[in-house]
Design goal:
The structure holds two protein chains of two kinds.
Chain A lengths: L3 H14 L4 H40 L2 H34 L2 H35 L6 H30 L4 E6 L2 E6 L2 H5 L3 H31 L4 H35 L1 H7 L10 E7 L3 H4 L6 E6 L2 H7 L20 H31 L6 H10 L2 H15 L4 E3 L3 E2 L10 H38 L18
Antiparallel strand pairs in A: 1-2, 3-4, 5-6
Chain B lengths: L14 H29 L5 H11 L3 H18 L1 H10 L1 H20 L6 H31 L7 H25 L2 H32 L4 H4 L2 H22 L3 H23 L2 E3 L4 E2 H4 L3 H28 L12
Antiparallel strand pairs in B: 1-2
Helix pairs in contact in B: 1-3, 1-6, 1-7, 1-11, 3-4, 5-6, 6-7, 6-11, 7-8, 7-11, 8-10, 10-11
The chains are: A mainly alpha, B mainly alpha.
Chain lengths: 483, 331
């Protein structure tokens, strides 16, 4: 900003507002915006396959229960999609507004995939969601089902390209550094090596499965609520039965996959692995299964000697090397660059893994009840499912904190530091101002989302109370009266 | 012909210029399609509740898809000219977030008003919808003009005037769109508003040209060139056609001529920019474009997907063609 009036304005308000550097304000802003956005992104990715299932079943069987499930979850999908669009568009633009130097350096590698995302995924999703929401009577049944598949495909392709970009930032390949107009930039040399870099498959599988787990928990949580209110609800008992089995399978798979993923991280980003275990001194590393802070300082600065821990000696070495308990794990003190914010990585990792095991337990408990009978009558299980319904998203977000905060101080691993990636013209005042707007705006936005979600749930609960048929009576018409 | 996987030459010699054309095309289609929505949102202000329901039934299935063109514009600019993407967005930092904020207001307003029946709640989100629909085209006009004119700050006269011009254009587009989508009293009124806005648009277009001529001596050769003259004639023809079509109840013709106005404006702004892409930083297309391999690769994707995308829109607009009725809301 060089306009005189603006400059005066900034100098008057500047010192008061600019208590954050452009770098720190930009990082917090991006991190906060993605924290909210990823909830909606994961909701789309995870819910899409379920919607396809409900829609296809509705068209195939004409059963009322599928019409009900499709309508209920399409409403939630639609609200989530709008929230996802509203919070997602700023993410793409923030590469330019806040991380301009990064965008200039890595433009050839990440600009392409982002444009593929728009071309392949966003249009597909937006166009066919229009049909899904407004076109039930305007297109044929099978075309309607196809539309839900197209929306799902769009959501999964979108995640594909975004994770191509993100995984490239973790394990960059297929480029060389060249000088252009006095600036070093990464020039694309091999698109396939860049897109399918070593991290990509790990990330895509882990993230997509995490999204499915999160949505499954949401579905079984809400189903548990409806079943708890009305034990005769065939619609929601169906959802509950399918949900607990899916939960057990997907969360068990996630744990096994996560273990192997961790080994890959230890090989490719040793400083992140060290931060996950707060491992400072190079040597054999222990795995801290339980870590409890004993004083306030141990929250912000977790180290084995100021935590109460239950540890498996040498087990982190064992995991990192795939079997050697004495394998040397480089400690944070021995890297040539700064450590990431260890506390964030260490605690986020523990929250993610701890919740992951809880999901396996829940899934096993539910599946056991299903097998033995009485799934719908176990109040304690139903309550546990209800309380756990948002926790998948918590695990997913903390998992991303491990991946992203653990990559610091790099914005592109070993290529560009985050501090060198920030937009040169942006001032601390401007960045702080927009950060405040994002904090306030997204708190309001998310409250509105929760409110709307609650309304949709209440509306469904009311239908239960007044006893609208949710079973498949032979004499009931296939398509219900409008609500 | 050079191989697509060549890292030493562009598949076509003029590929960087074609990519510049794609950036302009994406921006133009965005301003056109979301222009329908912005205009609808502005005209929403004076509609009564039952008319508002109708207007939102016309808006509902289309706006999200329309807004994706903005994302396409951003990512295509990023993919082809990353330095320009970084420079321009960083330079107009607060303005960019103001645009995103007003777009959010518009999107949320339309969706959230129907989530509760209470009067105050509905009025609040209606006001957000109207404010967002009015501010967005204004700020977008300011942004594009600041970029094209190489202004270091958006607080200058010319971007302000262009912002107003884009708002007038949005009302022209919204009036024409609603002419097709509604019936009877509402249609008569919105079409009339569109005709008035066409007059305002021509006036503002002339003012814009005058401001550019007096304040940007460097642009005088372009402004006095034959191509600008042709664009002015085309603008007048489309404006006249729009007014005549609307008064003869030829609503589809009115949409086409209003679209012609939008296209002409975008082409005009692009001629001011070409062959630079970031005048404030002194970057030309050749300076800022990515390396051959990167551009060849993204162009292959564009060549495959752009026709598909255009197909989606022809399909979407045909599924939701014709006048709306109040019951066409998602239930």
């Amino acid at each position: 900003m060089t306009d005189p009036t603006v400059t005066t304005m900034m100098t008057e308000f500047g010192p008061w507002l600019a208590f954050l550097t452009p770098e720190l304000a930009s990082r917090i802003q991006f991190g906060w915006a993605i924290t909210i956005h990823i909830i909606f992104a994961a909701l789309s990715v995870g819910l899409a396959p379920f919607l396809v299932y409900f829609t296809v079943q509705e068209v195939r069987t004409g059963k009322e229960r599928y019409v009900r499930l499709r309508k209920f979850w399409t409403k939630i999908f639609a609200v989530g999609f709008i929230m996802g669009t509203v919070t997602g568009i700023p993410m793409g633009f923030m590469f330019g507004t806040n991380f301009g130097a990064f965008s200039t350096v890595a433009g050839e590698l990440i600009g392409g995939p982002l444009s593929f995302e728009a071309k392949m995924a966003f249009f597909l999703e937006a166009v066919f969601l229009g049909i899904l929401l407004f076109g039930r009577d305007r297109v044929s049944d099978w075309f309607y089902a196809l539309s839900s598949f197209m929306v799902a495909l769009g959501a999964w392709l979108s995640a594909f390209w975004i994770l191509v970009v993100n995984s490239w930032m973790q394990t960059p390949r297929g480029y060389e550094i060249v000088m252009e107009d006095g600036v070093q930039i990464a020039q694309l040399t091999d698109p396939l090596a860049a897109f399918f870099n070593p991290r990509f498959p790990w990330m895509y599988v882990h993230m997509q499965n995490a999204a499915i787990i999160s949505v499954t928990l949401l579905i079984v949580g809400i189903a548990a609520y409806f079943v708890w209110k009305n034990r005769d609800s065939d619609v929601w008992k169906t959802a509950l039965r399918v949900g607990v089995v899916v939960l057990l399978l997907t969360s068990t798979f996630q744990a096994i996959h996560g273990d192997m993923y961790g080994r890959h991280v230890a090989e490719t980003q040793p400083h992140k692995f060290a931060a996950m275990e707060a491992h400072y001194e190079t040597g054999s590393a222990d795995l801290h299964v339980v870590a409890i802070p004993t004083e306030f300082e141990s929250i912000t600065d977790p180290r084995a000697d100021n935590l109460y821990t239950i540890s498996i000696p040498h087990f982190a070495s064992f995991l990192a090397s795939g079997g050697d308990p004495n394998a040397e794990v480089t400690g944070l003190n021995d890297f040539e660059y700064d450590s990431p914010p260890v506390a964030w990585v260490f605690w986020s990792f523990r929250i993610m893994v701890g919740l992951g095991f809880w999901f396996i337990a829940l899934g096993a408990w539910g599946t056991y009840r299903l097998w033995k009978g009485g799934l719908a009558d176990d109040d304690r299980l139903l309550k546990a499912l209800m309380l756990s319904s948002p926790l998948g998203f918590v695990a997913l977000i903390t998992g991303w904190y491990v991946a992203e905060i653990g990559r610091q101080p790099w914005i592109i691993q070993d290529v560009l530091k985050t501090s060198d990636g920030v937009s040169p013209p942006v001032t601390g005042t401007e960045a702080t101002l927009t950060l405040l707007a994002f904090v306030v705006g997204y708190v309001l936005l998310f409250s509105v989302f929760l409110y709307v979600l609650k309304r949709i749930i209440d509306e469904e609960a009311d239908r239960h109370e007044i006893g609208i048929a949710d079973d498949n009576r032979p004499d009931s018409p296939g398509v219900p009266a409008d609500d | 012909m050079t191989s697509v996987f060549s890292d030493s030459a562009y598949v076509l010699e003029s590929l960087p210029e074609l990519w510049f054309g794609l950036v302009v095309f994406a921006l133009g289609v965005y301003l056109l399609l979301d222009g329908f929505d912005f205009g609808l949102g502005i005209l929403f202000a004076e509609a009564d509740d039952s008319e508002r329901e109708l207007m939102l039934a016309a808006f509902g299935p289309l706006w999200k898809a329309n807004e994706v063109w903005l994302v396409l514009f951003g990512t295509v600019l990023f993919a082809g000219f990353p330095a320009v993407y970084a420079n321009v967005l960083g330079r107009y930092y607060l303005l960019v977030f103001a645009i995103l904020f007003s777009l959010s207001l518009r999107g949320l307003g339309s969706k959230l008003r129907e989530e509760r029946d209470d009067e105050q709640w509905v009025r609040f989100w209606d006001a957000c919808f109207v404010a967002g629909s009015t501010l967005s085209p204004f700020l977008l006009g300011v942004f594009v003009a600041s970029w094209v004119l190489g202004e270091p700050s958006p607080l200058a006269i010319a971007p302000f005037v262009v912002g107003l011009t884009v708002v007038a254009l949005a009302v022209v587009l919204g009036g024409a769109f609603l002419g097709v989508k509604t019936r009877r009293g509402l249609r008569t009124r919105v079409v009339q508003r569109g005709q008035l806005a066409t007059g305002a648009y021509i006036l503002l277009f002339v003012i814009t040209a005058a401001v550019l001529y007096s304040q940007y001596p460097g642009l005088r050769p372009v402004l006095l060139s034959g191509s600008t003259g042709a664009l002015v004639v085309v603008t007048l023809v489309f404006a006249a056609a729009n007014v005549v079509a609307a008064s003869r109840e030829r609503y589809h013709a009115s949409v086409l001529s209003a679209s012609g106005l939008a296209a002409t404006l975008v082409v005009f702004l692009a001629t001011l920019l070409y062959p630079t892409v970031d005048p404030a930083a002194g970057l030309t297309i050749a300076d800022a474009v990515v390396s051959p391999l990167a551009l060849n690769m993204t162009s292959v994707f564009a060549a495959i997907f752009m026709p598909i995308i255009v197909g989606y829109f022809l399909f979407l607009y045909s599924v939701f063609s014709g006048p709306v009725t109040a019951d066409q809301r998602y239930k």
